[in-house]
Amino acid sequence: MCDTYNDRQPYVTIRMVSLSVFLCWCCILTGCLDPPLTPDAPFVSVEHGEAQVSIELVSLGKAGKNLSPSEIIIFGPYHKATKTITPMPGEYSYDNDEVPSFLIFTPHQRVSTNVLYAAQELVRGQITEYDHSFWNPDKDPTRILICPPDECLLPANHLKFYVHFSRPMRPTESWEHFSLKDLRTGELVPRPFRHIDLWDEQNRRLTLWFHPGRQKTGVNLNEDLGGILTAGHRYLLLIDPQWKTQAGQPLDGSVKKRYAFTASNADHEQPDPNNWELTPPTLDTVEPLIISFGEMLDFATARKVITACSNNEEIIEISQQADWDGTRVKIFPSKPWTAGRYTLALNPRLEDLAGNSLERPFEVDLSSETTDFAKKLTLTFEINQ
Fold this sequence. Notes:
By secondary structure, the chain is mainly β. The protein has helices spanning 10-30, 132-135, 212-215, 220-225, 299-302, and strands at residues 43-47, 50-56, 73-79, 84-85, 90-94, 102-107, 117-121, 126-130, 144-147, 152-155, 160-165, 178-182, 187-188, 205-209, 234-239, 258-264, 277-279, 289-292, 306-311, 314-315, 318-322, 328-333, 340-346, 378-383.
């Protein structure tokens, strides 16, 4: 869980109140809130009135496997009173990978600045609104969201962040646009990031790694430069405001360009399914099964924690949705739950924030005798008649 800090200065409270007032005025002026920037939400990008809507297929799981594109996503003018969308005609396509990961819808018509639009992911029914302020390139700044969430307590051997942008970014040498400041010393941490560009297909989600060679004890870089984080120190992850989107727009002054966290003691313990809490769903509903981990786990692998779900050896099609802080995951069935005893097969590559997986710890003494580190890889739960 994220820690709170009781030693913050009074100006933090004042700043939060000011921010709340500002957001309220934004709602009044624009007519609706900014659309949520989450991996599972339909995402709309607009350049010069021409829109594209995309949905990440992996978030749908097997529930969307055999559906046609028009059964997965729609986009068009949104009628708030009736909560209905008038679908716009257009073309569907997939990204260029051998195994498509994004479904993309391109409307035949240009969007209008005086119309409220919405995109709906049809598998779970999620609707996301977009008004004209979202795609005005002169006024709308690029939004940034970082996972794990801001102001968290992270282990000193933390490995990576997931940085989501609301617009495609220029992907070359992305690590050069970040710096890490130790607020205890007031100095920048030297050479903290791994020099590798790891983007999604649309250049909107970056995996930013701390250099594993500095985070792993006994490795040359760790011996020469020391670890990146020191337990008890508070840090700021800073983003260069001159970094440009693919369209050539720099991050302007209204964009939040800092992310704060505090380092705790290093974590060398593997996640343990014996400590997880399962909240079973209700019979004959599509309510989610909720798995609470009791700690923050890696968001990307938490979204794929279950590799198979079965009831009396019958495979159940499911989709998975992890909380943004990685503390729990919701398992949705493609059909209503029936009574019975269910078995969940766990992904052995599920990791915590320090890279310890169900399969093995991040740091293993290779000189010692071979040890089976694997935790149990199945969970069971029952739904009674």
